[in-house]
Design a protein that fits this description.
It is built from eleven helices and 47 strands. It is α+β, with helices and mostly antiparallel strands. Strand 27 and strand 28 form a beta hairpin. Helix 5 packs antiparallel against helix 7 and helix 8 packs parallel to helix 9. The longest helix has 21 residues. The chain starts with 11 loop residues before the first strand and ends with a strand.
Length: 765
Amino acid sequence: MLEALTAGDPSWVGPYRITARLGAGGMGRVYLGCSPGGRAVAVKVIRPELTDDPGFRARFAREAAAAQAVSGAFTAAVVGADPRSVPPWLATLYVPGLSLAEAVARHGPLPARSVWALGAGLAEALQAIHAAGLIHRDLKPSNVLLAADGPRVIDFGIAVASEAAGTLTRSGLVVGTPGFMAPEQLRGEPVGTAADVFCLGAVLVFAACGRGPFGQGATPALGYRAVHEPPDLTDVPEEVRPVVDRCLAKAPHARPTVPELLRELAERVVPDAASHAPGAGAETVVLALRGAHWLPTPVADAVDRAHTRAAAARAGQAPGVPGPPPDGRADRAETGPGAAPLVGGPAGPGGEAGTPYGPTASDPVPPAVREGAPPRDGVGPAAPPPGRSDAGAGGRAATRRRVLAALVGTVVAAATGLGARRLLDAGEGDGVDDSPGRDSGDSRRTPGRVAWRFTTGGAVTAAMVAAGGVVYASSKDGSLYALDAASGDIRWQFTTGNGVYSSATVTGGVVYIGSADYALYAVNAATGKEKWRLDTDGEVNSSPVVAGGVVYVGSDDRHLHAIDARTGERRWRFPTDGWVRSSPVVAAGVVYVGSRDRGLYAIDARTGERRWRFPTGGEVKSSPAMWGRVVCVGSYDGSLYALDADTGEPRWRLRTGAGVGSSPAIAGGAAHVGSDDGRLYAVDVASGERRWAYQVGHIVYSSPAVAGGVVYVGAKSGTLYAVDAGSGEERWRFRTGADIKSSPAVAGGLVFIGNDDGVVHALRA
């Protein structure tokens, strides 16, 4: 958010006068600055502790120099940097505009003519980036700004030098966004310029139909589809399909080169472009888009309003802001079309290609800087009545904060540099909790602050799910709630015949959810209307997963069911000797799921035949997690197991002090899991060695979510904990006021958690 400066903020950074805070990224804080000539810039100041690494400044200098070498018409410009400063800093022009993610969320898909123009501009931007020896690797809708004279690509600071002797970023990291990553990226293989072509194709699909080519859902599911399944181009206009289909080829060599793509797209924008001299495609696109009305009118009007507000900020009115646009609505900064950027270790030993389907408590998000002391425990004010969202303290102050958020959502920092990510806080909630025990100072971005709350009519015990700017909350009141992730406003409510203890999965515009009324439902994600239901002979408290057009879900009837995702017809069902409340995961054609009969099963996804069964000493309610060809799962015998995914042979076993019903979350080569012994564990997946154990002090039913180097987990005490993933030290905690059995989800800079009072809390991550 655009915030006023505090006592600890600099007045000057290099030659730039600092006027306001813009946000924070994993590498440091970002400020709005003004050059001596009056030019507005976004200045990233690196965290001092990072400079303790002897090689950091050299890497930072190389990244800054590489970014400054990019000079395309449709890329944001790096205007200055000082790697030797204490602390180092980097400045970029900031670009007033609307992101593609925001534009599509507010105004719907772009018409074909705008998609062609968008593609031509992006191809020109990639050509400039590649000419500087860089590969972007994270082109996605939120990294594309729409301006009156064409798109702008931002955040190419995570690019790596394509011909450097070593990478400019830390080795072993997988950088990109699930659903918009090339298969070779997901497999951990070396990437070239063809990976950016794949990303471009995925972005054009999103622009043309409002979703990515591989649907929505958990990170593993998106990755699996990108590697193994053809893109879903059903809603893409026919004239656009051939181009994006070639861009989305699985093999890098089968994709068009950027120059080839630029020539083809330029021909669509300017029909006689082919008659120009070879290599003139970029110039043709630039001349065609500058001054052209390439955007549909509603989007163009929104861009104009953004430009007006940005001009006011440059005139010195930030962080005070003008009023809302003429239609009375404050423009919101959306969180994007799906999963946030993925930054994690390799897929597993040998760069395992088979990224699994499976429910996850969250999708990874950009790391956020956390400065100063962590906030004290907070207990929010009384919850609003059921079905209502509380977006913070009301009155004039709240209104001004929302208008301020509207300005920041449109004055987007064009951030580049080492490890750069999205720098602005996306979301409308004011994030201030003025209840007793909370610091009510100007710290809306402080981690653990409340952004909004929503109250359901019953306990929220299932894992939260965040996808496509929507948070899905299951309630004991028998309903699944679809809430706007930024504001907490209800989009729709789907009511079943009994409590909902299953978590939703979202893909292909459909939400799949189980209920204690014995049924699995398919629900239209846009309207909340039922598409079909399938009845089982027991409560469906397992959370479904979709793979290869089939929904897999467990039931208290002791079976795992495989159901056609489109028709709702049962394909097969697999019997166990106990109810199945574990949620399945699918990888390489095998479904893994636990049962109350104490076993973990591996089942052929196509035929429903058993591959193997591993017996534990207790009920397996935990949902398995994959790391390469290793499957990890907890058991109420007090253990976390790691098994060979192909044979079921044990790799290692970690014994805790009590039952493990929590589902492991794997990130950075570590499995993070809670135990009824009151501890949160981090275990090295390769060796089984315990990295650390954090003492929560209460039973941990909740399954962890890992994002931005932080592990989030709830406890029976009603407290949500944020723990450093590397050290196991507490970052902050938040008391919700009632037991937590739900598992958190993280997206768009917010962490979402439910409790037994039926309240969904959205907190600053």
